[in-house]
Automatic annotation (TrEMBL):
One of its GO terms (biological process) is Mo-molybdopterin cofactor biosynthetic process. It comes from Chitinophaga caeni. It catalyses: GTP + AH2 + S-adenosyl-L-methionine = (8S)-3',8-cyclo-7,8-dihydroguanosine 5'-triphosphate + 5'-deoxyadenosine + L-methionine + A + H(+). InterPro entries: Aldolase_TIM, Elp3/MiaA/NifB-like_rSAM, MoaA, MoaA-like, MoaA_NifB_PqqE_Fe-S-bd_CS, MoaA_twitch, MoCo_biosynth_MoaA/MoaC, rSAM. Pfam families: Mob_synth_C (PF06463), Radical_SAM (PF04055). Keywords: 4Fe-4S, GTP-binding, Iron, Iron-sulfur, Lyase, Metal-binding, Molybdenum cofactor biosynthesis, Nucleotide-binding, S-adenosyl-L-methionine. Residues 5-226 form the Radical SAM core domain. It is an enzyme of class 4 (lyase). Residues 307-329 are annotated as: Disordered. This is GTP 3',8-cyclase. Its EC number is 4.1.99.22. GO terms for molecular function: 4 iron, 4 sulfur cluster binding; cyclic pyranopterin monophosphate synthase activity; GTP 3',8'-cyclase activity; GTP binding; metal ion binding. Its cofactor is [4Fe-4S] cluster.
């Protein structure tokens, strides 16, 4: 089992398979000017499957496929099927914006995908276009409906942005009245691929919670799953749950069990640490498996205690200037 110097067992990998996305969400990337990676710079299917297998041998039990947008990658279903067959892997999940996803859902069910995180920051068509710089809300809602029909667990991820989608908080909460889904509100993070400074956060965890309480005063705290990033709540009589993720204030770091692999094959131990271990170079250089495992173990041993320490230790402290698409969502 991978264990860091703080005694945390690392068993969850977020694996980004592509940097490209069919949306241009304001909190993730600039409207233009972001250069997509050349295909040769990305890990290919064989490399991804080999690295995933090595990490599972080291103790990873859950892999979440991210991007960019995973369904922009060609032959994504083949990759998912191969990953799902890795001996020792307990769970394969994915995160998607839902634009291209609906036609693939029966196959996802067949492959064994049991949970999907769906990015959805608004239920209003105008604000959807304002946030994503694209159209497509109907496709996302179609994906949501199909996922439920196929009994695939859904978590909606909504980034809370001051002056942009505050009016969407209550309608998103109301989705949990009749639907067995988790709606999770996320503090806005600074990974938007621009040089703009990230000012003090108005809509932090407590502000979001207190705002929800003004409309749903009976909402109450429920138990958080082990290693959860979201603080969990439920409204009496509602089927689904509400979560709030303190992604910027980072109060959940103490129980972190995660690693990330970027689209270019860098292993990162924290979202806020822009230093990485180049596993693509190790794989393409035919490094022995024992040496690759040693690289991974050494990286885990350097994992920061929390996001604030990771940020302070980042190379040049430039992590705020990266796009989430480059890091892996």
């Amino acid at each position: 089992m991978l264990t860091d110097r703080y005694g945390r067992k690392i068993n969850y990998l977020r694996l980004a398979v592509i940097d490209r996305c069919n949306l241009r969400c304001t909190y993730c990337m600039p409207g233009e000017g972001l250069t997509w990676l050349n295909k040769k710079e990305l890990l290919n299917d064989e490399e991804i499957i080999r690295l995933a297998g090595i990490l599972v041998e080291l103790g990873i039990r859950k892999i979440r496929i991210t991007g960019g947008e995973p369904f922009v990658r060609k032959d994504i279903l083949h990759l998912l099927k191969e990953l799902s067959g890795i001996p020792g892997l307990d769970e394969l999940a994915l995160t998607t914006n839902g634009i291209l996803t609906a036609p693939f859902i029966p196959k996802l069910k067949e492959i064994g995908i049991k949970s999907v995180n769906l990015s959805l920051d608004t239920l209003d068509e105008y604000r959807f276009h304002q946030i994503t710089r694209r159209k497509g809300l109907n496709q996302v809602l179609e994906t949501l409906q199909s996922l439920q029909e196929h009994q695939i667990k859904v978590k909606i991820n909504a980034v809370v942005m001051d002056g942009i989608n505050i009016d969407d908080i209550f309608p998103l909460v109301r989705l949990t009245e009749q639907k067995d889904i988790d709606v999770r509100f996320i503090e806005e993070m600074p990974f938007n691929g621009t040089n703009e400074p990230h000012h003090s956060l108005k809509w932090d965890y407590l502000q979001i919670l207190n705002h929800i309480k003004t409309e749903f005063p009976s909402i109450s705290k429920i138990a958080d799953p082990l290693h959860a990033t979201a603080y969990s709540y439920q409204i009496p009589g509602f089927v689904g749950k509400v979560g709030i993720i303190a992604a910027y204030t980072r109060s959940f770091c103490g129980s972190c069990n995660r690693l990330r692999i970027t689209p270019t094959g860098d292993l990162r131990t924290c979202l806020y640490d822009n230093r990485g271990t180049n596993l693509k170079e190790a794989i393409r250089g035919n490094m022995p498996v024992t040496e690759i495992k040693k690289l991974i173990v050494e990286a885990v041993q350097q994992k920061a205690e929390n996001g604030w320490d990771a940020e302070r230790g980042s190379a040049g402290n430039k992590s705020f200037h990266e796009s989430m698409a480059n890091i892996g969502g």
